[in-house]
Amino acid sequence: MSYNIGLSGLRSTNQALDVISQNIANVSTAGFKAARAEYAALYAGGEAGGVEIAQVSQDFSKDGSKEFTGRNLDMAISGQGFFVTKNAMGQMAYTRAGTFNKDANNFIVSAGGDKLQGYSVDANGALATGVVTDLKVSASNLPAKASTSVAFKANMRADAAVPTNPTFDPTDANSFNYSYTSRVYDSLGTEHTVTQYFVKDSANNWTSHYYMDGAAMGTPATQALSFNTDGTLAAPATPVTLTMAPAGADPMTVTMDYTGTTQYAADFSASYDADGYSSGELAGVRVDDDGSLYAVFTNGKDLLQGQVVLANFANPNGLDKGDSTSWTSTFASGNATLGNPGTGGMGSLTAGAYEGSNVDLTGELVNLMTAQRNYQANAKSISTADKMTQVLFSSW
């Protein structure tokens, strides 16, 4: 019996050494989770029969180190959850290794070529959360979009003086108080300037003169602005409709919304927000912390392409190990629960970084020495049992 007990110890320790060696070998592997060999006693008829490795568990509760790279498609999970990928055979796998790239067909793929899964967008660019599919970035150029609205907000200085020149002339600074230029785009993506010249007529009353590309606009040429005694805007109460006829492009109708414009005894200030843009080529991709995937274009615009989803399991240790950084679901793990990063118990996502290994190298080296001592002790027990048997036989 002592031979079998020692032999079981050698076998179990050898398996434990394999686990420790794998941990040490993957101390720098992205998304690797440290494993641990768990021993169990063997009994036969109530008598001790040695030991065995009951299971090899992995530490999913401890995050690996966060390695910041600045790469647009590197992602790190903090907390619970796995990235969902699909291989060429259509099989789902789950991983913590967040080093992704864009392949030749613009799919987002792992280092092994598996496609990252998430929610796609519909024809209108809205997120379609019903179906999980392969995440892909559109390779087409972004066509130009004509401007249709300008949200203009300013403060007219309440104590400003009426201009000395009563006849407005855009070339004479003495005929107006302030000017401000907004940029809009026509159907061809050509940029045009809309300049507003503000003239104070009397207390609480102003006139805005509209010019496009340096020429006076015909409809309308001016717009009266009036303010209440508390500095809030009294008129216009609704957006002003400007019509433009750029050469070679479709006629434009742009609404100018003055909501939020005030008249206080403070310096003149203005800002605007206009829709529309010129055409652009794909310049790169961006992932936000909520998993939203954007295509970034040379014109400074970005379009939503989808959203990364995470998966979680009731029993992560029940997952079946694929390679060193991926797993597949089993009956023991339960079905995957999908969700957005940072919601429903899912971990948070950090873009521009990846999760490193969670192996504690110092601890593994100590475990290695302990396992080696166990191996030597079991080998010694077999050697001692052999000597005792020799003594027994020689005494006959």
UniProtKB/TrEMBL annotation:
Main location: other
Keywords per UniProt: Bacterial flagellum, Cell projection, Cilium, Flagellum
Flagellar hook protein FlgE D2 domain mapped to chain residues: 158-277
Gene Ontology biological process terms from the UniProt entry: bacterial-type flagellum-dependent swarming motility
UniProt GO cellular component terms: bacterial-type flagellum basal body; bacterial-type flagellum hook; cytosol
Domain of life: Bacteria
Flagellar basal body rod protein N-terminal domain segment(s): 4-33
Positions of the Flagellar hook protein FlgE/F/G-like D1 domain: 76-126
Compartments (UniProt record): Bacterial flagellum basal body
Flagellar basal-body/hook protein C-terminal domain segment(s): 351-392
Role summary: A flexible structure which links the flagellar filament to the drive apparatus in the basal body.
Family stated for the protein in its record: Belongs to the flagella basal body rod proteins family.
Protein name per its UniProtKB record: Flagellar hook protein FlgE
Organism annotation: Gallaecimonas pentaromativorans
